[in-house]
């Protein structure tokens, strides 16, 4: 239910704060599309931190560059992608790694579900400027090094409104 989702997102936000994630910090995700990734979109933004989705199809060298360039403080990584993360991790400055969907313990890494279970729900949403960063991603397939693109809270809300409008910009699904 939506209430369960909201409660988990608030627990994630609380866990991030307990780990020292502050407004403006980058929280990376290296994962597939699933409900925990959606929880991250809301839980990270709730704290004033910036959600940074990583493209899991990039080469480890590119990913290491991107993680360092973004100065990611924490990464949420799917257990199935740990082999990829292990190629990247030694070359990064990430403070915390949280494993999503863990079926076993991983030395030195945090378990997502354990982290949520032990966290108090976040009840102190930051008074955010709507123009502050909410999410970021990096360009790929261009010449030179990848470049970061930051989206504000306002831009994400306006984009959501636009895609929810039928026939936005006089275009329909039949065009």
Overview of this structure, please?
The model has no long low-confidence stretch (mean pLDDT 92). It is globular, with a radius of gyration of 17 Å. By secondary structure, it is α/β, with parallel strands linked by helices. A seven-stranded mixed β-sheet has the order 5-4-3-1-2-6-7, sandwiched between helices. The protein has helices at 2-18, 35-46, 60-70, 82-88, 112-117, 153-164, and strands at 26-30, 50-53, 72-78, 96-100, 110-111, 133-138, 148-152. Helix 2 links the parallel strand 1 (26-30) and strand 2. Helix 1 packs across helix 2 and helix 3 packs across helix 4. The protein is 37% helix and 19% strand. It is built from six helices and seven strands; from the N terminus they run αβαβαβαββαββα.
